[in-house]
Input
Amino acid sequence: MTVHETFEGGQEMKGRDDTGLKELAREKGAVLRLPEGVTVDPADVDVEVGEDETMIINMGPQHPSTHGVLRVMLELDGETVLRSKPVIGYLHTGMEKNQEELMYIQGSTNVTRMDYLSPIFNETVFSVAVETLLDVQVPDRATWIRMLMMELNRVASHLLFMATNGMDVGAISMMLYGWREREIILSFFEKVTGLRMNHNYVRPGGVAADLPEGWQDDVLDICDAIPPRLAEYDDLLTGQPIFRERTEQVGVITADQALALGATGPILRAAGVPWDLRKDMPYMFYDQLEFDVVVGTYGDAFDRYAVRLNEMRESINMIRQIVDLVPAGDYRVQDKKVTPPPRARIDESMEALIHHFKLFTEGFKVPTGEVYVAIEQPRGELGAYLVSDGSAKPYRFHMRDPSFVNLQCLPVMLRGGFVADAVAVISSIDPIMGGVDR
Amino acid sequence: MSDSTVEQTETETAAETEPETAAATPGQHVLHATRESYLDVVKGLQDEGYDMLVDLCAVDYLSHPGRVLPNGVEPERFEVVVNLLSRPLRKRVRVRVQVPDADPTLPSLFDLWPGTEAMEREAFDLMGIVFTDHPDLTRILMPEDWEGHPLRKDYGVGRVPVQFKAAPSTR
Output
């Protein structure tokens, strides 16, 4: 029999002997820092079962429950997970490098494709970073429109989580319902932005277009349509014994572990930490809205589900408030250096033509500086770090994507559980690989 | 934590606030650390109540050497930027470290925040910063046999042929 040499690279999980002590502890899910003076005892780090009785298997990158192309390597003792290591990068397309080649005016087209389930957030955080460096004050109406779109986007994103999470743990019908409800919001997005996804709607200086006639009715229709459906989910999932069995006490992470790993969003809140940037470090006009931060108690997969479910209710309440608060006015800043002139002006004004031409060939220049802006995205803190060298293109743009950081919780959550639980755990993290790999 | 670290942190702050008024963005709190003081500064901040490390990334300043830096900070090619967040203080702080091209190494923060594992691997993968004492410093986003570090400024865009590796034949 011939044995093929396969390429076992450094990214993969190796045998225990080939793995360093710290890395072994990490893959086992040890997170918290040891007190000073205490050293790691090798006998302590080693897993209980001998290595000849375990096996290392791949889960993914084609596994349907891994939400795209996440690959998790697991060391198994029978059905029990001893060690795990997420392997990522299968969707890496160099978007941060691309961003350096695109003008600021083109930038939001690129960032919107990063975390493809929350495009409005990506565009907003990029635009706010650019505006901070430009020192441009966006009109109030534009900011309120951004908030309205973001909260709708949060509901849409959580609805998709409900759908996939339900399907992953065996509630297939949930997949259809979640998708159905999400479509209501996406069709509103299509009406406003022209596209269901990857909108390129929020741009530096404001938003691309004003809200269409009668948008209040559309939004209020959504606000009326979604809550009864959420009550249906309660019947379908929350009280259902099979669903609870599959998610309760599965993938537990404590608050200290989540903080040490940098986890944010529903993972951190499900562990009992009331941390929401909208509430704790308010940006835009979130301090004018009344809403609660939803927290869990046990930090398990069920709590993460419950946090997201109730966050949707909070978001719907916020959307109702926003509808009343959106003021009249401009939807983008009247600064000719940043905002292109309206199409009709180009035919009659030489100046408008020049501005239009200059903007779309050279773009606008952003003063030298660097800035970090963070907003609360459905999955956690979305940060944008922007460095400008004074030209019309970002010198460096780095996106701090919550999915990328949250994925590191996997070894902690999987340790000691069953392989079947791994499906529920991966699903409860809700990673979007487009954001993880960028 | 020793008292010397606190002093160091404060002097860093003092050195920072004076000259960078031109480039500083309002509401953004920036500290500059040297490679030697990097670990102590970050550890000092952790003890001050900065309990979350939200982001770590690297910047290549090869083609933008004229950036504004406070007095006493020698510009180098690379810069590693660490974003810390304090929940009790409701504040953010950014620590910037200059890393020279000749020896792009920096101590790992893994022992302080295990969450830096993926971020440091990303900085290594895309920018070539070597983090000493990192438990598993391998490529994370690029294929593991990739050559070069794509986010560096001397790494051409669109001029690099796609690298394929030969799969062994089954026959």
Confidence is low (pLDDT under 50) at residues 38-46 of chain A.
